[in-house]
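We include this case.
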Amino acid sequence: MSTPSVAVGLDHAASPVPAHIVEIEKCLTRVTYLAGRARQHEYLMAAAGLALDRAAVAILRRLAESEPMRPGVLAGLMAVEASHVTRQIQQLERVGYVVRAADPHDRRAQRIELTDAGRAAVHRIREAGRVGMHMALADWSDEDLRQLAQLFHRLVDDFVTHAEVPADLGPTA
């Protein structure tokens, strides 16, 4: 039994995309929307007992997943302007969540690192998010949750792999 396809194309030369892929893309778009809503962020901050904007939370999460890094590198990884990161870092410094430290490879440069308070804030944010996710998935079986986690890991790994390979968008004008 074959999967129905939907014709998709960026340059009018349509290529078939299986209907399941179309549905997965729709669901991922919806999840992204739901997770990124301002109301969701406000709920998360209230549950975590913090008063941070979304950009600050994104920076804290990124720093928690890595070694200390230069602000320009952080901006590049987040695909935002360096000035945007600089403003957020200044705010996070004022509340004691990050500090600047000399780069051991180039003492003229600085790297940004989390403080203990910053690590605690990230922990609170993650825990609040996990509680919300646990509530949403409370009726799922352990096996369904195991399979979902496994498939999400596979999805992310494949997205990362294919993000490094330019898409073939066909002939250009």
In short: Helices lie at 19-36, 38-48, 54-64, 71-78, 82-94, 116-136, 142-163. The first helix runs from residue 19 to 36. Residues 169-173 have pLDDT under 50 and may be disordered. The chain is about 60% helix and 15% strand.
